[in-house]
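Hypothesis: this fold can be encoded by more than one sequence.
Test: take the structure tokens below, design a sequence, compare later.
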């Protein structure tokens, strides 16, 4: 209970710090959010009414305290561009971002594990050269540039491959939630799932390639180190094949540093969705964040930053739990 209480306190303090920073920075950035909403020829009275409506007629300290009190009640205010509650806008777009991140993580994990295991299993100069070269290439090119490359390739050679949106609006699809991919898979609607994957695979792969390269480098290095340990030599004397030893003995120990890296890289992966969603016209949190910045939608920017901060914290907590599961030494009572 003590650790749980400390974790909650740490989460609260972190979110409080994030709220102070984002609120202060947005007030220091040049620009008038009210001016973005005023129609041509608006009077001073109209401006004053808008300032009063969005609470901008008060001091910054008063604005912050009022906003913080509302956030505690899960009220992030009203979006100035959508004229909707911020939480409603976020919840409507968050599933698209989460599904994109989840799919990209799965692709990155599959690529990284496959390449790392192949490199250590084959253990030939050619395999090492090819896998290291592919990893270096994937890591040297940022995700938004991969997205541009994919869009160019599809435009030139695969014109039937979609590069915009989340699904074909001409196809009538009924979903109970905004988690389209997960819902279609759970409900066994494989045709709808396949169509959704056609739209999601390119942005997810663009996000996944740099992450896969980073995981491959760490996992491959950890596997090579594990293969030099005494317990591996013991397994070899028992007649086990090299692939069996890699999968059954070395991989478990190599996972510890890999989990630590992956948790850090996932936070960058979520940040990368901002540009990727814009490039592929995906209706997620990232594209909403760019639109909010361009329109000086302060309530929406603040809400998105707070939600992102909470997601980052949850990822770190989850990685700590996985780290303990992977390393038995951390589970022993002291």
């Amino acid at each position: 209970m003590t650790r749980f209480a400390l974790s909650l306190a740490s989460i609260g303090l972190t979110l409080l710090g994030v709220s102070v920073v984002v609120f202060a920075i947005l007030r220091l950035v040049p620009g008038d959010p009210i001016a973005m909403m005023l129609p041509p020829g608006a009077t001073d009275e109209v401006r004053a009414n808008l300032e009063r409506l969005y609470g901008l007629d008060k001091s910054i300290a008063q604005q912050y305290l009022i906003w913080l009190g509302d956030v505690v009640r899960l009220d992030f205010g009203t979006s100035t561009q959508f004229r909707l509650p911020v939480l409603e806008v976020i919840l409507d777009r968050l599933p698209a971002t989460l599904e994109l991140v989840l799919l990209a993580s799965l692709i990155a994990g599959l690529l990284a594990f496959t390449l790392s295991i192949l490199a250590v299993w084959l253990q030939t100069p050619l395999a090492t050269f090819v896998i290291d070269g592919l990893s270096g290439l994937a890591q040297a090119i940022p995700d938004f540039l991969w997205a541009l490359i994919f869009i160019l390739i599809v435009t030139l050679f695969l014109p039937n491959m979609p590069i915009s949106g989340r699904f074909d609006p001409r196809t009538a699809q009924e979903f109970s939630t905004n988690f389209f991919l997960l819902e279609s898979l759970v409900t066994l609607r494989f045709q709808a799932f396949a169509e959704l994957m056609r739209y999601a695979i390119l942005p997810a792969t663009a996000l996944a390639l740099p992450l896969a390269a980073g995981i491959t480098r760490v996992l491959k290095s950890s596997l090579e180190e594990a293969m030099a340990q005494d317990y591996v030599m013991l397994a070899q004397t028992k007649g086990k094949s090299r692939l069996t030893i890699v999968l059954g003995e070395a991989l478990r120990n190599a996972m510890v540093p890999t989990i630590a890296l992956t948790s850090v890289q996932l936070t960058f992966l979520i940040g990368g969705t901002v540009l990727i969603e814009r490039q592929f016209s995906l209706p997620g949190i990232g594209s909403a964040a760019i639109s909010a910045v361009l329109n000086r939608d302060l309530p929406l920017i603040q809400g998105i930053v707070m939600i992102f901060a909470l997601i980052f914290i949850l990822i770190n907590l989850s990685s700590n739990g996985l780290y303990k599961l992977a390393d038995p030494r951390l589970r022993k009572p002291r």
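DSSP finds 13 helices and no strands in the chain. The chain has two domains: 2-72, 92-330.
Hypothesis status: open.
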